[in-house]
């Protein structure tokens, strides 16, 4: 009996002690979380007081007074600009102001058993993220000279007088002086005195510091031409092609021709017995064609060069039939200005005879459109400092400017920054050509630096797991965040998504979530997002689903008690959230009606929408491909011209049709496919990739993922998190692992070695 009493007393004492320690650690965990929240608030206040642009060292505290139990560890996205301990190295003038992301890891000082115990009882470390802009240094004299030299324009060829830049609108202390190697051809004022080659030298100086730059110019007594094609075949692989093949730039089609190497040169070798041909595909030939050719001189058969032309949709007609049998080497040149289609063939009766084409050159006469486009590329859409307005074009002539607001932008480009944002129209008159040409451009000035950047993030949902699929994206404007889908259900996917969302949000509040459709690779981790963050609004797909992932998703947003809107209610404007709603001024989201939101096929239900940020348009397509229905054709005309395309269904072969691309005309395509390039679903597919490059071989494709077509090393040539920063008039694309030079898909081993590769990006 006594023994039982002792045991009971011991257990009672042990229980009391255990309860005491549990309560003590619970209170410690709660206190630590409270301190961490307070530290984040105080850091936020400190950086608000700093202002938008800094030029001095920062104090990045490791602790705050009154919060001695909390440690703050800092990391910088650009340690060469702001070090991890706050030392600021201002960028040079030519580099411009730079934005740096500072991340503070805020955690408890506790270690060992105490840390384990408070972690079990609810303690969580947190992070604080802030964007800081570091002001560039003022321009040095040498930088002023460099900027001015870069703004100088002298045409390579001209048949008109040239109006040379004499003063700088950007730097009033810069002097520009010109000299001519032959004033009898072209004077120092750019006036034509004769014909021939000349070198113009610009001496740009400030005091004793100067730079000289030479410009070669030919003064000609004939129409100006612009080079459209100069193909010497040096970039082609040496191999047999199929009977018919199209050049990599999609400009001409070859029948019965292959690339061989001869005399240390690559040439196009064309059969003559089967009427091998070269046909130009640009739809409006209208130019001067020249090419050189040769064949073995010891062949006795007659050889003919036949030139064909066509106007509009007519059949080809024979233009010239030239007996070239007497010539071992020759060059053919002709002006086909009045014809729209041209092809040439070589013909002989020999089964063995081939003809080598060494190069093909096409030149077009310079048009008014060429002249205007050359100016258009030099004038920015948004300015907040003076610019040197061009006084001539790359084709010569004189350019004079008239400003709709000369008090804001002068006729030479001097800027007086207004107190409020203003649209200014600059009208150029281009003279010295046969007729004067007028060109007008609208420029936004004032407060451009105060407009908040819009960030679009393509999250790397597969950075931790080989099996991870799907996609997740975010939009951020100031403290307003939108999350679009949340990757797969795997624990590694969830870890990756939550980690990246934490790094993007400043306040743990997500103003809007968009769940595009019920598949687990899109809503798999959405319940964790609801649990981890305060989500205020949700746009969700139509209909229901029967999986556990779907049920978890519904339970999560119901527990969150957020505002839930079905996509068709939003599109039809029958709820508070409208079809097109503004996040901040000139930044909006528009829901696009695909007409398939109630379809039985889950992918076809996908929500499609456009982000319009200061005129830069990003199209989000989820998985709404054409596998079941021709979805893209139903909405593409409503969308129209865009800048950035989120490629549908991770690069499925059923999406991104040629017709769709011709209408929406993307400049950049982003592919999200979870784990690695060419994964178990074959995403992204060569069909989709080829169609994008075929549509326009200057459209860049960036993939979040990497690898060489297998999961053995998914980090090989991987971009990771892709970030697009959109400001007035421009956007900048960076990636987690490759910074400001993300890997373009054509340069990856995955695409270089792909057996189905036909087209590439060509810079």
Description:
- The structure is a single chain.
- It contains 13 helices and 41 strands.
- It is globular and about 130 Å long.
- The chain has about 775 residues and is an alpha+beta fold.
- The strands form 8 sheets. Strands 32-31-29-27-26-25-40-41 form an 8-stranded mixed sheet.
What descriptive keywords fit this protein?
alpha+beta; globular; 20% helix; eight-stranded mixed sheet; seven-stranded mixed sheet; single chain; 763 residues
Write the topology of this structure.
Elements: H1 2-50, E1 53-54, E2 70-76, E3 98-108, H2 112-120, E4 126-134, H3 141-150, E5 157-158, E6 175-180, E7 196-206, E8 209-219, E9 225-231, E10 244-246, E11 252-255, E12 257-262, E13 265-271, E14 277-280, E15 288-294, E16 304-310, E17 317-323, E18 329-335, E19 341-347, E20 354-365, H4 368-376, E21 382-383, E22 398-403, E23 422-431, E24 437-445, E25 454-458, E26 473-477, E27 480-484, H5 491-504, E28 509-510, E29 512-515, H6 520-523, H7 526-532, E30 534-535, E31 537-540, H8 548-560, E32 563-566, H9 567-571, E33 580-584, E34 587-592, E35 608-613, E36 616-620, H10 631-639, E37 644-646, H11 658-664, E38 668-671, H12 686-695, E39 700-703, E40 722-727, E41 730-735, H13 749-752
Helix pairs in contact: 1-2, 7-8, 10-11
């Amino acid at each position: 009996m006594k023994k039982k009493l002792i045991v009971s007393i011991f257990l009672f004492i042990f229980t009391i002690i255990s309860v005491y320690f549990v309560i003590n650690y619970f209170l410690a965990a709660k206190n630590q979380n409270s301190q961490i929240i307070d530290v984040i608030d105080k850091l936020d206040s400190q950086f608000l007081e700093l202002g938008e642009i800094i030029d001095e060292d920062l104090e990045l505290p490791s602790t705050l007074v009154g919060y001695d139990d909390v440690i703050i560890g800092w990391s910088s996205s650009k340690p060469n600009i702001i070090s991890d301990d706050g030392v600021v190295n201002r960028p040079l003038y030519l580099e411009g102001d730079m934005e740096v992301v500072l991340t503070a890891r805020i955690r408890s000082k506790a270690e060992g058993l105490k840390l384990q115990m408070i972690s079990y009882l609810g303690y969580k470390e947190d992070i604080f993220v802030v964007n800081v802009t570091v002001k560039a240094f003022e321009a040095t004299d040498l930088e002023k000279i460099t900027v001015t030299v870069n703004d100088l324009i002298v045409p390579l060829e001209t048949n008109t007088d040239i109006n040379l830049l004499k003063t700088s609108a950007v730097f009033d202390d810069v002097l520009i002086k010109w000299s001519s190697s032959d004033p009898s051809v072209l004077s120092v004022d750019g006036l034509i005195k004769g014909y021939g080659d000349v070198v113009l030298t610009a001496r740009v100086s400030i005091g004793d510091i100067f730079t000289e730059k030479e410009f070669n110019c030919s003064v000609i007594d004939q129409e100006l031409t612009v080079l459209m094609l100069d193909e010497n075949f040096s970039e082609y692989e040496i191999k047999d092609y199929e009977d018919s093949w199209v050049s990599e730039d999609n400009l001409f089609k070859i029948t019965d021709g292959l690339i061989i190497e001869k005399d240390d040169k690559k040439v196009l070798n064309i059969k003559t017995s089967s009427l091998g041909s070269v046909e130009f595909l640009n739809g409006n030939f209208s130019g001067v064609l020249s090419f050189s050719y040769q064949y073995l001189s010891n062949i006795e058969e007659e050889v003919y060069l036949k030139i064909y032309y066509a106007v509009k949709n007519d059949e080809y007609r024979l233009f010239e039939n030239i007996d070239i049998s007497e010539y071992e080497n020759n060059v053919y040149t002709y002006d086909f200005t009045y014809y729209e289609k041209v092809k040439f063939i070589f013909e002989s009766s020999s089964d063995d005879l081939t003809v080598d084409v060494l190069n093909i050159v096409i030149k077009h006469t310079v048009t008014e459109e060429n002249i205007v486009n050359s100016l258009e590329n030099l004038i920015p859409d948004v300015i907040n400092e003076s610019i040197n307005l061009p006084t001539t074009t790359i084709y010569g002539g004189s350019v004079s400017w008239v400003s709709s607001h000369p008090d804001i932008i002068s006729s030479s480009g001097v800027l007086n920054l207004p107190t409020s944002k203003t649209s200014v129209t600059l009208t150029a008159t281009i003279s010295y050509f046969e007729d004067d040409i007028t060109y007008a451009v609208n420029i936004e000035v004032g407060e451009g630096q105060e407009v908040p950047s819009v960030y679009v993030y393509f999250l790397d949902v597969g950075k931790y797991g080989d099996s991870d699929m799907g996609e997740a994206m975010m939009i951020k404007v100031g403290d307003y965040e939108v999350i679009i889908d949340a990757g797969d259900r795997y624990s590694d996917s969830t870890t990756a998504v939550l980690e990246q969302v934490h790094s993007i949000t400043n306040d743990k509040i997500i103003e809007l979530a968009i769940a595009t459709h019920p598949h687990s690779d899109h809503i798999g981790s959405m319940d964790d997002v609801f649990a981890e963050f305060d989500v205020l609004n949700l746009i969700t797909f139509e209909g229901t689903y029967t999986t556990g992932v779907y049920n978890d998703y519904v339970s999560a947003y119901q527990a969150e008690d957020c505002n839930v809107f079905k996509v068709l209610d939003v599109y039809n404007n029958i709820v508070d959230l409208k079809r097109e709603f503004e996040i901040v001024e000139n930044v909006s989201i528009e829901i696009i009606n695909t007409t398939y939101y109630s379809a039985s096929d889950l992918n076809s239900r996908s929500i499609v929408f456009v982000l319009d940020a200061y005129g830069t348009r990003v199209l989000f397509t989820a998985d709404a491909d054409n596998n079941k229905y021709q979805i893209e054709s139903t909405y593409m005309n409503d969308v129209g011209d865009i800048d950035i395309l989120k490629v549908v269904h991770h690069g499925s072969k059923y999406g991104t049709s040629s017709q769709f691309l011709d209408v929406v005309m993307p400049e950049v395509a982003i592919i999200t496919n979870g784990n690695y390039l060419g994964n178990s679903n074959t995403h992204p597919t060569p069909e989709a990739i080829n169609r994008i490059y075929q549509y326009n071989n200057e459209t860049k494709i960036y993939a979040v993922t990497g690898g060489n077509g297998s999961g053995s090393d998914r980090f090989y040539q991987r971009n990771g998190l892709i970030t697009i920063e959109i400001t007035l008039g421009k956007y900048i694309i960076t990636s987690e692992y490759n910074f400001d030079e993300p890997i373009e898909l054509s340069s990856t081993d995955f695409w270089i070695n792909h057996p189905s590769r036909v087209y590439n990006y060509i810079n």
